[in-house]
Amino acid sequence: MDGRQQRRGCRLIMAVRAEPRVIIAGAGPVGLAAAAAIRKAAPRVQVTVCDPAIRNIQMPTESGLRVIAMTPASMSLFESVGILSALPEFALAPYERMRVWDAGHWAADGIEFAAYRVGRKSLGAMTDVAALQACLFEHLASDSGVSLLADGVAEIEARDADVSVTMLSGDALEAELLIGADGRQSRVRQSLRLGVRRWSHHQRAVVGTLMPELAHERTALQRFLPDGPLALLPLRDARVSLVWSTLPDHARALESMSPEAFTEAVSEASDHVLGNLSPTSPVISFPLESAYVTNPIAPRTALIGDAAHAIHPLAGQGANLGFADAVALASIVKEVVESRGDPGDAPWLRRYRRTRRADNLTTLFGMDFINRLFGREQGAFADLRRRGMQWFQSSTLAEQLAIGHATTMRGVDALGELS
Question: Which of 3, 75, 127, 181 has the fewest Cβ atoms within 10 angstroms?
Fold first, then answer.
């Protein structure tokens, strides 16, 4: 065989390659969920997940400071890929009710959402982030179609047929599609110079784990105070997870308080709805801002999760939006592979952008609006808030719509699309 015949043979082999490749930058829960969803939806696809943090992933022994409120749709995703039942008991705490009220009113006078009133067993579940991440990692580590690399992205070069990713170690990877799931400071996004709109909420979130005097009864509680919302999220072991958004100076003062002083402050701020709340962990805070990428796709690249959008934590929807991104992208990859297409082609990426844009932006700006609305004590905003709460209290339809929006993965059937 002469040289020309050999080259023709190489081209033919490349043209009929049966295993599309996807690189995922970021091994947080959203990046790992994307890997699991893609492998479930399209088993032929070879997935590489890269993140220097991979070497630090390990299963915790109890709930930590980072918890998320998984919606039933997100829970269905993890059940579909075989993760939900693998979570340790402490890491999954279903909740059946949510009570919301604002400063100046009793908790009993606020809005209550109840799962049974809309035919559900729960509104969702509080989930420990580290445990979820460790379960996903263990699941993927046992999958021969997945490679897990403790390495980071240095450079990206999109080409006609694939994308080349140079790692921090100097190694190079190639794939048809690159997914940026590497968080708010996304290296993928920065490398591609994708535009981001950001704004500060001029608040810090104070987080900690507390032991309440009274049973939480599987109820998530949220009180809107003038400086920001305070949430008490029920955990499996009778404790609650605190997320208190407040002014920066107040947040730092709370961090520096003695346990006794902090107990008094948080118990009073929560209207003593669970009695005294004693801290059982360190209390820390972090700044709050919202952001979104104006165009979350680039040649052979798509951004998901916090790399594409970051929202205020008052409704706990940030991670769920990321999981919905992952499912949307996995369902598109499935369709591409079944049609023997290229998952990095621009029309498919544009479909992903179109599929997720409305839900992500509606939720992002909706959370921003609610945070501002409940922060006003006087004037038209305060009057609008009071009227709105009265309407919610008297309207079963409003409750059904609100729960439906908060507990579903809009535009994506988590089970149907991946099976």
Answer: 3
Beta strand extents in 26-115 (DSSP E only):
46-50, 67-70, 92-95, 97-102, 111-114
Q: HSE of 47 in the Cβ direction (CA atoms, 13 Å)? A: 31
Q: Are 270 and 223 in contact (CB under 8 A)?
A: yes
CA dist., res. 189 & res. 183, Å (int): 10
Amino acid residing at 331: S
Q: What is the mean pLDDT of residues 218-241?
A: 93
Both structure tokens of 86: 């693998």
pLDDT at position 13: 34
- The CA distance from 246 to 249, in Å, is 8
- Main-chain dihedrals φ then ψ at residue 273, nearest 5 degrees: -65, -25
pLDDT in tens, 77-100: 999 999 999 999 999 999 999 998
Cβ-Cβ contacts under 8 Å for 197 (sequence gap 6 or more) = 291, 292, 294
Distance between CA atoms of 247 and 202, rounded to whole angstroms? 7
Closest by alpha carbon to 69, among 44, 94, 88, 89?
Answer: 94
At residue 13, φ and ψ (nearest 5 deg) are -60, -45
pLDDT of residue 192: 95
